[in-house]
Design brief:
Blueprint (H helix, E strand, L loop, with lengths): L1 H22 L10 H105 L5 H6 L4 H125 L14 H13 L4 H16 L7 H5 L6 H5 L1 H8 L4 H11 L11 E2 L8 E3 L2 E3 L1
Antiparallel strand pairs: 1-3, 2-3
Length: about 400
Amino acid sequence: MILRKRRRKLIAFALTVCMIAIAIPQMNVYATTTLDQLNQAEQEMQQLEQEKEEIDQEKEDLEDELGGLNAQHGSLKEELEALNEELAAATERLAELETEIADKEDEIEQTRLDLEEAKQTEEEQYEAMQNRMQAAYESPDTDYLEMLLSARSISELLNLADYISMLADYDNQLLLEYQEAKEEVAAKEVALEEELEELEVLKEENIAEQEKINEMIEETAEYVAQYAAQISTAEAELAELEAEVAAKEAELAAQEADVEALKKKYQEELLMSQLANSSAKRDISQVVFEEGDRYLLANLIYCEAGGEPYEGQVAVGAVVINRVLSSVYPNTVSGVIYQKSQFSPAGSGRLALALAQNKATDSCYRAADEAMAGVTNVGGCVYFRTPIPGLTGIQIGNHIFY
């Protein structure tokens, strides 16, 4: 996902920075002025803004991705619901088919019984006719002939003849009806068997359809679960990004406040520098140095410009003495050096460590002596820093004096 990619880039960047830091040889650390701090703060703010833009873009991309996942998830849920309805309909149809098949089997069984009964009736009727005919031909003197001879008149004789003919016709008609009924029942049995086969085919097709629907339901349900998991992961990452955006916004707001404060402080320093140059100044002869001023100034020069050329060391000492001579700064070396937020070694503890070990070199002491004698190679400058674009002043070594 997007966050994992960005974290890999951040880790790679951090490792690169660490390798560069290890590869760069150690150098003397110089004091940072307000302008240094302002420049660094603005760079950090730009970096924060860039990081926030990247996070915002990642958040937007993730929101788009989440929207697509939700849309697909909703579509799959609708598809799953439709499949479940289709399965329910198929199951209901299967139940109907099974009922129809059971009814058809009962009907076929009853038809078979009817067919057996019709066959038996036909056989019985045929056997009765055979018996009557056999009796008529085998015993003519005791059957139909006897009946005819027993007639007492012509009309009775004719009536008896008609009766015998009608009886024979009735037997024939009854036998024909039994045969037709048997054939009709047999045809019905064949039709019912065909209908049963059709129902069995429909049942098998329905079962196959149900199996197919079940497979589709399982597959769709798996997709739904996968999308639900992706949505859950994306929502968690989105929440993390939103928290990161909020934190970055808070950090950016704090950084902006720091930048504004540093800008204000820098403007105050420029005004102080201008004021120092335009205000009344004492002559070096009017300054009474205290015991330990030389030691203090030499060690400050060491902290600020220990790795600079001698001219740069004299210039740092001159900045301190220029402040002592100005009416807008403290009028003692210790007062100037320990003035709040002016020389960072004094506030960081580096100066105290240098003083405890007397780190100042011979050149630092010579530079302190020259500065305390009134020598200046930077005019009335009261500030210095490492060079940055746009800053004008007197450059000596790695410092700009202004």
